Amino acid sequence: MTEVPGWTRLPDLACRTVGGSVVWANDESFAERENLIRRPEPGFRTYTFGHKGQVYDGWETRRRRESGEDRAVVRLGMAGVIDGVVVDTAFFTGNFPPFASVEATSASGHPAPDELSGWETVVPKSPLGGDRKHYFAVSARRRYTHVRLTIYPDGGVARLRVHGSPVADPDLILPDALDLAALEHGARVTGCSDMFYGAPGNLIAPGQATVMGEGWETARRRDDGNDWVEVELAAPGVIRLAELDTSHFKGNAPGWASVRGRDARTGAEFDVLPRTRLQPDTRHRFRLEHVPEATHARLDIYPDGGMARLRLFGGLTPDGLRVITERYQDVR
User: Fold this and answer.
1) CA angle 169, 102, 87 (to 5 degrees)
2) Sequence-distant (≥ 6) Cβ neighbours of residue 225 within 8 angstroms
3) What is the spatial distance between Cα 130 and Cα 142, in angstroms, rounded to a whole number?
4) N or C: which terminus of the chain carries fewer CB neighbours within 10 A?
C-alpha cells in the first residue's frame, strides 16, 4: 500500500507522548530503540558522527554475520484495537531491512518483556524499501497491549506507528470519577471548525502538553465567527468539572470559551459552561452544577486561538458503564 490510508488519522497507540515504551530489543548497536516511537517525524543531518558512527533518528541494529532476525517489543501507551501499522524507513537507504513483520498480544497487569506470550501476526512478513513509509492495514478486531516488530535480517527503521482506537479496561476505571473526554477512555473528536496549526485530537490526549505544538490551534479569523471542536464522550455520563487548559498559548490563547453538552439519544442540548473569560498559559478549572446527562460536548473558543487540553471530569451513568464494558468485551 503506497497511498496514505484514512486510518492514519486515528491515534498512534504506541507513541511515547501517550505513554508508549520500547521495552526490549535484541540489538541496538547503531541507533537506540527508543527512537522508534518518538512523536516528531524522523530527521537527518549529513556527516553527523557519534561513537557508533553516523547518527540516525531511528532504531538500527548491527550487520548480522549469522542467521536470524532482529526484534523490538513496544508496550502500547493506550491499549486498543489496531487498524493499521506504519513502518517508516526514512533516511535508511543502504541499511534498511528488506523485510519486516509485526505481531501483537494482549496482556493483563504489568508483565516483563520475557513474560509476554500469545503473539498473533497482524502484519505478515512483507518487503520493505529504503527511505519510505510502508502502510499495512490490520484486520484483527482485538484489543492489544503490546506489539513486536521483527526485521529480516537486520538494519534500520526510523519509526513504528500503530494507529487504532483505544479501548479502556472497565476494571481499571472509577465509574463515578473519570475524564469523560479522555482519548484513553474511548472519547474521540467528531468535528471541528479549523485545525490549521494543531490537530483537535491533541485536546483529549493523555498527559499535559509540553509545548504549544502538542495542542489544538486554529488560524487567525478575519470574520465575525468563532472556532469550535466537538467530542463524543467515552460513554454517556454527567460532567461535574471542566478543565480548559491554555498552557503554552500566550499571545494566541482564546479570549473566551464555552462548553455545550448534547444527548444524542434525545437530541437535547444544554449549557455545560457558559461563555467565560480565559487567561493565557493557564489551566482553568470550573466546578459545574446540575448538568444533564451527555453523550457529546462542544468546546467553542472566541474568536480563535489555541488550547492545550480539554478535560471533562464526571461520572458514568449506568448506561455509560454498560457501553464501556461491552466495548471491552467485544474485542477481548
Assistant:
1) 105
2) 193, 303
3) 31
4) C
Number of domains in the chain: 2
Cα atoms found within 13 Å of the Cα of residue 130, Cβ hemisphere only? 7
**92 and 208: one domain?**
no
Backbone φ and ψ of 305, nearest 5°: 125, -155
Q: Do the beta carbons of residue 257 and residue 324 sit within 8 Å?
A: no
- pLDDT tens digits for 282-326? 999 999 999 999 999 999 999 999 999 999 999 999 999 999 999
Q: Which of 315, 83, 100, 307 lies closest to 213, judged by CA?
A: 307
Helix, strand, or coil here: 87? Answer: strand
Q: Which residues span the domain enclosing 23? A: 6-166
Q: Cell 475524564 maps to which residue? A: 179
Residue 329 lies in a domain: no
Q: How far is CA 112 from CA 56, 67, 244, in A?
A: 28, 27, 37
Answer whether the bond into residue 175 is a cis peptide, omega within 30°.
no
- Cα torsion angle, 289, 294, 297, 300, sign: negative
Q: What is the pTM of this model?
A: 0.93
Tens-digit pLDDT profile for residues 91-146: 999 999 999 999 999 999 999 999 999 999 999 999 999 999 999 999 999 999 99
Please report, for the domain that includes residue 135, its CATH number. Answer: 2.60.120.260
Q: What letter represents residue 37's amino acid? A: I
Q: How many C-beta neighbours within 10 Å does residue 243 have? A: 15
